[in-house]
Design brief:
The complex is a heterodimer of chains A (about 675) and B (about 300). In chain A, about 50% of the residues lie in helices and about 15% in strands. Chain A has 24 helices and 18 strands. In chain A, helix 11 packs across helix 14, helix 21 packs across helix 24 and helix 22 runs antiparallel to helix 23. The longest helix of chain A has 30 residues. The longest helix of chain B is centred in the C-terminal third of the chain and has 22 residues. Chain B is an alpha+beta fold and about 300 residues long. In chain B, helix 6 packs antiparallel against helix 7. Classes of the chains: A alpha+beta (about 675), B alpha+beta (about 300).
C-alpha cells in the first residue's frame, strides 16, 4: 500500500474558484487511477490561494494483472484469419492454445496484461488532469502553451510506501515534479522538501500556511466574533464573504477597526455594501442600536507592529470610500427633499434607453404606471397609490448612490421616498417592486407593492414579446423566465384572482398574448414540478377553461394530483380512459358524436342503471363543487364514480350486436367523459 | 531590500521605478506624444504585445479620462493623471517577485504591509484586448493592475506578455501618507522651490474640467472622430510596397495613431454627455475595429514578428 501527495503550486488562484478546483482535482485524479486499476482507501483535497493539494491513502502500489481469454479461428482456418487474430491479441502462433470444442479444434489466446507500477499510472493520470483541467477561465503565460488558471509554478508529486518515498517522474511543459513546496510568500519564503502528507501539512503550518480552507474560515470567524464580543458588538453573518476571504489568505490575521463617526449616519446597507464589495470587510454592529460601528478585515500576515500599519491603511481606504458614499447620500437626499423631489430623477430617465426598440426608461415608467392602475383593483390596492408608486419606483436609478452601487437599487428608492415624505406604501413599493428576484426571494404582500411588481414584470414580458426577443434555449439575456416566475409567485402567494389574459392585453401593445400565456404555463410546470406535481396533471388542468387564472389553475392541479395518487383516482383514470377510447373509436368509425345521454329504457343490465344514476348524481355534485371551486369535493365526486364505472365494464360489452343497446351504451360513456371533463381533461394524463 | 529610505516626493517615486525597472533590463521609454486614456494605449504596449519578438519596456504615460475630471477638488480623481507601465514579453516566471521588488524600491516595507493578489480580469473593449491577472492590494488599497495578456486587437498573444500598471498618484499618496492629491509634494519638499502636485495641476484640472464638460465643440469632436476613422482606413489601404523607396513599408504605427485619436475623441464626446447608452456600444465597436485593423497590419511588419523571408 502507498500514500500519494500531490500539490499544484501556482500564482494566486481566484478565491471563488479554489474549492471547486480542489474537488475537480480529486475527482479527475481518483477517477483516472481507479480506471487504470489503482484503487485507494481515502482521498482529501485542500486548497489555499497558491496551491491545490490532494492526499490519497491506501493506494495500491501496482495495478492488478488482468487476464483475458479470447476465442479465435478454427485450427486450419485460412492463414490470413489466424494472422489477423494474432495481431489483435499481440501474440505469436506458439503462444496460442488449441482446444477441442463440439465445433472442432479452435485457437484460444490467453492474454495477460501485467500490472503496472503506481508511479507510471500516476504520472499519466496527473498529466492528463493538468492538461484538461476544467477551470472556468484559464490562461497561457510566457512562451509556453500549457493552460492553467494563473501560471503554474511547481508540481509536487510524492509516492510513499514502506520502502520510502519516490518522486513520481513527470514533466509538463518544463515543469518537473519534485518533493518540495513553498511556505508563506512573505513570512517564510523559500522552498523545502517534504516526506509525506503529515510532514507537508506540519511544515506548511510552521511556514505560516493553513492548508485547510475550512480551518481558515473557522479561525477567521472565531477570532472575528471574539474581537467583536470583547467590544460588546457582533459580526454581521456573511458566509459568502467568509469563504471568499478565506480564499485570499494563507495565514489569516483578523483586525478590527472603527468606522469614522462622520459615516455612522449612512444607511447600514450602504455601509455594509461599500465595505463588502470594495474592501471585503465584515460589518460589525452594535446589537443595542442595530448600527454598524466597526469593521473587520482579514490580513494575510503577522507584523511586528501587530497589524497597526495594515489597519491604519485599511481605515484610510475605507474613509475615502465612505466619503464618496456620504457625498452621494447627501446629494441624493437634497434632491429627494427638494420641490421637484424624485420627479427630477424620473425626468432624467427620459435620456436613458431601456432597450432601443422599447424606448426610454421614462416611457417604460409611464407604461408601468398605467398598468399598475389597471392591476390595482385586482389585487386590492388603491389605484392612485399604485400609480404614484409606479412613477417613483425606478427614480433611484438616476441617483448617485445607485450609480455607484447598482445592487442598492430599490432600497435607496425607499430611503429617498421616505425622505421626500411620500406615503409609506409608496416608499415600500420602491424597494419591493423588484421582488421576487429568485426562487427563494420573499414575495411582496403589500397591495401597492404587488400591483407595481406585477405591472413592472408584465410590461417587460409583453414588451419583449412584442419585439420578438423571447428566451431561446439557454439564452435569456433579459431574464424573462425569472420575470414570469416572479409573476407566478406574486399571483399564487397573494391569492390573486382573475385572468392574466386581460392584463396582458393592457400591457405593451403588439405582444402575442396567447404565446405569452403558453410561456407562463411552461414556467408554471417547472415551478410546480418542485412541489411534486406532474407535468401531465398540469396539462390536464391547463386544457380547461379559465387557464389564465393561475390561482384557480393551481388549486385544481393540486387537488387532481392528490386524487391521482389515490387508489380511487388511479382506477377512475383507467375507467375513464377505457370509456374514452371506446367512445373515440366508435365516434370515428360511425362519424357521429355520441352526446345525447343514455336512455334508461334501453338498459339491459343493472350495472348500466347504477352507472347512469351515479353519473346523474355525481355530475350535479361535481359541477356545483367546481362552481364553488371546491376541488377536493369535486375529486370526492369523481371517486364515487369509480365503483360504478368498474362494475359497468365488468358486466357488459359496449359494442353489443344490438345497435340500439350499443348506441345507448356509447351515450352512457359520453356521459362519463362529460362529467369527468368538468374537472380536468383526463385524456392528457399518462398511465 | 533595495531601498531603505522613504521617498519624499512624487517624482522620487517615479525616478525610483525608472531606476528599478532599468536595473531589471527594461528599456525605459518616454511617454507617447498623444492623448491616451491609459498606459496600455502606448504602442509600446498595444502593438508590441503582438507577434513573437521578445520585448521589455517601462515608461510613464500621462493619461486622460475626461469624465473623471472634478475641477481638482476630489482628493483622488483627476482627468489627467500618470500611469507607470511595464510590459515584458514573454512574461518571466518571476514577474510577481519582480513586481514586489518594485514596491520595496519605492519604500513599501514588506514586513509591515499586507500585499494581496486579488482576482481581476482585465478587458479593454476599445482595444479588443483581454487578459487574466489581479489587482494588487496593499493594506486594502488597489495599487496596481497585473495582467497576463491573452489577446490584443483580436489576436492571440503568443508568447504572452506580462503587463504591470501602477496608478502613480494613488500609489504615491499612499507611500507618502498624503490625503489629498493636490497636497502631494511633487519635488523634494526641502528644495529651494518646493512644488506640490496642486501647484502644477490644480489650475489645469479646473480648465480642462470646464472645457471637457461644457465647452468642447461636439461637432468638431465628432468630425475629428470620423476623420481619424477614415484616415486610419486610408493608411492601411495603401500598398505594402512603397513606390518611392521600393521598400516594404506597412504604416501600422501612423494608422494606430489615428485609432488613438478616435478613442480620445470618443472619450471627450462621452464627457460632453452627447453619447447615449446605445450609441456608446456602437462607438466602442468602431474604435475596436480600428484597433483590430492596426493589429492585423502590425503583425505583418518586422517588429510584429513577420519574417522578410515569408514575403519573398
Amino acid at each position: 500500500m502507498a500514500d500519494l501527495l500531490i500539490e499544484l503550486f501556482s500564482e494566486e488562484i481566484p478565491a471563488r474558484m479554489q474549492a471547486r478546483a480542489a474537488e475537480d482535482l480529486k475527482k479527475l485524479v481518483t477517477d483516472g487511477l481507479v480506471e487504470a486499476g489503482l484503487t485507494y482507501a481515502g482521498a482529501h483535497a485542500l486548497s489555499t490561494p497558491r496551491r491545490l493539494t490532494l492526499a490519497l491513502e491506501g493506494l495500491l502500489d501496482h495495478s492488478p494483472t488482468v487476464r483475458e481469454e479470447r476465442k479465435g479461428p478454427k485450427v486450419g482456418a485460412p492463414e490470413q484469419a489466424i494472422e489477423g487474430f494474432l495481431r489483435g491479441a499481440g501474440l505469436r502462433r506458439d503462444q496460442l492454445e488449441e482446444r477441442e470444442t463440439p465445433k472442432g479444434a479452435i485457437y484460444f489466446a490467453l492474454i495477460e496484461k501485467p500490472g503496472r507500477p503506481a508511479a507510471e499510472i500516476i504520472a499519466e493520470v496527473l498529466e492528463a488532469t493538468i492538461r484538461n483541467f476544467p477551470w472556468p477561465k484559464s490562461m497561457r503565460w510566457g512562451a509556453g502553451s500549457l493552460r492553467w488558471v494563473r501560471p503554474l509554478q511547481s508540481i509536487l508529486c510524492l509516492l510513499s510506501t514502506d520502502d520510502g518515498n519516490e518522486v513520481v517522474p513527470l514533466d509538463i511543459d518544463g515543469i518537473s515534479a519534485g518533493n518540495t513546496t513553498e511556505g508563506h510568500r512573505f513570512m517564510a519564503p523559500g522552498r523545502f522538501p517534504v516526506t509525506g502528507f503529515e510532514d507537508y501539512a506540519a511544515k506548511l503550518k510552521r511556514a505560516f500556511v493553513v492548508l485547510d480552507p475550512k480551518e481558515r474560515q473557522d479561525a477567521i470567524w472565531q477570532e472575528a466574533t471574539n474581537q467583536a464580543f470583547a467590544s460588546g458588538l457582533e459580526v454581521v453573518d456573511d458566509k459568502g464573504l467568509l469563504a471568499e476571504v478565506a480564499g485570499l489568505v494563507e495565514w489569516p490575521v483578523v483586525l478590527m477597526g472603527a468606522i469614522g463617526a462622520d459615516f455612522l449616519g449612512l444607511p447600514p446597507e450602504v455601509l455594509q455594501t461599500s465595505m463588502r464589495e470594495h474592501q471585503k470587510f465584515f460589518s460589525v454592529k452594535n446589537p443595542r442600536t442595530g448600527r454598524i460601528e466597526k469593521f473587520i478585515t482579514v490580513a494575510n500576515r503577522e507584523t511586528t507592529d501587530n497589524g497597526a500599519t495594515i489597519l491604519a491603511g485599511n481605515q484610510k481606504v475605507l474613509s475615502a470610500r465612505l466619503a464618496d458614499a456620504k457625498f452621494f447620500w447627501e446629494n441624493d437626499l437634497r434632491i429627494a427633499k427638494s420641490a421637484a423631489g424624485m420627479g427630477a430623477w424620473v425626468e432624467n430617465l427620459g435620456n436613458v434607453t431601456f432597450h432601443n426598440k422599447l424606448g426610454t426608461q421614462a416611457a417604460r415608467i409611464d407604461r408601468i404606471a398605467a398598468l399598475a392602475r389597471e392591476i390595482a383593483p385586482v389585487v386590492g390596492a388603491d389605484a392612485d397609490l399604485a400609480e404614484q408608486a409606479a412613477r417613483v419606483a425606478k427614480a433611484d436609478l438616476s441617483s448617485e448612490m445607485v450609480y455607484e452601487f447598482p445592487e442598492l437599487q430599490g432600497l435607496m428608492g425607499r430611503y429617498y421616498a421616505e425622505a421626500a415624505g411620500l406615503p409609506q406604501a409608496v416608499a415600500n413599493a420602491c424597494q419591493q417592486h423588484y421582488s421576487p428576484l429568485g426562487p427563494s426571494d420573499d414575495v411582496p404582500t403589500e397591495a401597492v407593492s404587488v400591483a407595481v411588481a406585477l405591472a413592472d414584470k408584465i410590461d417587460t414580458l409583453t414588451g419583449f414579446w412584442a419585439i420578438d426577443e423571447k428566451p431561446t434555449g439557454s439564452k435569456d439575456p433579459y431574464a424573462l423566465r425569472r420575470a414570469a416566475l416572479g409573476v407566478i409567485r406574486l399571483v399564487l402567494e397573494n391569492d390573486v384572482r382573475g385572468g392574466l389574459a386581460a392584463i396582458f392585453a393592457k400591457g405593451y401593445a403588439g405582444a402575442d398574448c396567447a404565446d405569452l400565456l403558453a410561456f407562463f404555463h411552461d414556467r408554471l410546470k417547472v415551478f410546480l414540478r418542485e412541489e411534486g406535481i406532474r407535468h401531465d396533471v398540469i396539462d390536464a388542468c391547463i386544457a380547461m377553461e379559465g387557464n389564465d387564472d393561475l390561482t384557480l389553475l393551481v388549486k385544481r392541479a393540486r387537488a387532481l394530483e392528490a386524487f391521482m395518487k389515490s387508489e380511487d383516482g388511479e382506477n377512475l383514470l383507467q375507467g375513464f380512459k377505457r370509456a374514452n377510447n371506446i367512445l373515440s373509436q366508435a365516434e370515428e368509425k360511425d362519424g357521429v358524436e355520441y352526446s345525447f345521454g343514455a336512455d334508461e329504457k334501453f338498459f339491459e343490465h343493472a350495472s348500466e342503471k347504477t352507472l347512469f344514476a351515479a353519473l346523474a348524481a355525481g355530475g350535479g355534485a361535481i359541477s356545483s363543487a367546481i362552481e364553488a371551486e371546491d376541488f377536493a369535493a369535486a375529486m370526492g365526486g369523481m371517486a364515487a364514480l369509480r365503483a360504478p364505472i368498474d362494475a359497468f365494464f365488468e358486466a357488459v360489452q359496449v359494442n353489443s350486436d344490438n345497435q340500439v343497446v350499443r348506441r345507448n351504451r356509447l351515450n352512457l360513456l359520453s356521459q362519463i367523459r362529460k362529467v369527468c371533463g368538468q374537472v380536468a381533461d383526463l385524456s392528457r394524463i399518462e398511465g | 531590500m533595495t531601498e531603505t529610505t522613504a521617498p519624499r516626493s512624487f517624482q522620487e517615486i517615479i525616478l525610483r521605478l525608472q531606476t528599478y525597472w532599468a536595473s531589471k533590463g527594461c528599456a525605459i521609454l518616454q511617454p507617447y506624444d498623444m492623448e491616451v486614456g491609459a498606459g496600455t494605449f502606448h504602442p509600446a504596449t498595444t502593438l508590441r504585445a503582438l507577434g513573437s519578438k521578445a520585448w521589455a519596456a517601462a515608461y510613464v504615460q500621462p493619461s486622460r479620462r475626461p469624465t473623471d475630471g472634478r475641477y481638482g477638488e476630489n482628493p483622488n480623481r483627476l482627468q489627467h493623471y500618470y500611469q507607470y507601465q511595464v510590459l515584458i514579453k514573454p512574461s518571466p516566471p518571476n514577474l510577481q517577485e519582480l513586481y514586489l521588488g518594485s514596491l520595496e524600491a519605492i519604500g513599501v516595507d514588506m514586513n509591515l504591509h499586507d500585499i494581496r493578489f486579488v482576482e481581476d480580469d482585465w478587458e479593454s473593449p476599445t482595444l479588443g484586448a483581454w487578459g487574466l491577472g489581479w489587482e494588487v492590494w496593499c493594506d486594502g488599497m488597489e495599487v496596481s493592475q497585473f495582467t497576463y495578456f491573452q489577446q490584443v486587437g483580436g489576436h492571440d498573444c503568443h508568447p504572452v506578455s506580462g503587463e504591470l500598471t501602477y496608478g502613480l498618484e494613488r500609489l504615491a499618496m499612499y507611500v507618502l501618507g498624503i490625503d489629498h492629491v493636490m497636497d502631494m509634494p511633487f519635488n523634494d519638499p526641502q528644495s529651494p522651490q518646493p512644488l506640490t502636485y496642486g501647484d502644477i495641476f490644480k489650475q489645469t484640472e479646473e480648465e480642462y474640467a470646464r472645457w471637457n464638460f461644457d465647452v468642447a465643440n461636439t461637432e468638431v469632436l465628432l468630425r475629428h472622430f470620423e476623420e481619424a476613422e477614415a484616415e486610419c482606413a486610408a493608411i492601411l489601404a495603401q500598398e505594402h510596397m512603397d513606390p518611392k523607396t521600393g521598400k516594404r513599408i506597412i504604416m501600422a504605427h501612423p494608422a494606430y495613431d489615428q485609432c488613438i485619436k478616435a478613442s480620445h475623441m470618443f472619450n471627450l464626446l462621452d464627457a460632453r454627455g452627447v453619447i447615449s447608452v446605445t450609441e456608446r456600444q456602437a462607438y466602442i465597436g468602431r474604435v475596436r475595429a480600428l484597433a483590430k485593423q492596426c493589429a492585423d497590419a502590425f503583425v505583418l511588419t518586422e517588429a510584429g514578428g513577420h519574417s522578410q523571408e515569408a514575403t519573398r
